[in-house]
Amino acid sequence: MAARSSTTRTTLTWAPTAAHYRAVVLGVCGVGAAVLIRRPDLLVLATPFAIVATWSWLRRPRRPVTAAVRLGNRTLREGEATRVTVTVAAADVPLATGSAGPASDGQVAVAVAPGLFYQLDPPLGVASAPLRGGEPVELPVTVRPTRWGVPTVGPVVLSVVDSWGAYRAGPGQVAADTDLRLTILPMPVTFDPTSSPPQPEGLVGPSRAARPGNGTEFSSLRTFVPGDRLRRIHWPSSLRTGVLHVSSTYADEDSAVVLVVDAFSDLGPREGIDGRPTSLDLTVRAASAMAEHHLGAGDRVGLRVAGAADVPEVGIGSGRRHLRRVLEALTVIRPATERREDATRSVAGIVPGSLVIVLSPLVDPAMVELVSTLGSRGLTTVVVDTMPEHLWGERDDVYGSLAWRLRRQTRRVDVERLVSAGIPVVPWRGPGSLDQVLRDISRRARAPRLVRR
Amino acid sequence: MSDGSAGRTSSRAARVVRVGHGDELGMAQLVVGALGIVAPLAFLGCASAAGASVSLWLVALVLAAAIVVQIATWALGVTLLWAMLALVWVTQVPGPFSWWSVPGALLAMAHHVGLAQIAGRPSTAPVDRTTLRDTLRRCGVVAGATVAVAATSALVLRLGLDGSAVLLVVAVLAVSAWVWAFLSTDRS
Question: What ipTM goes with this model?
Answer without folding.
Answer: 0.84
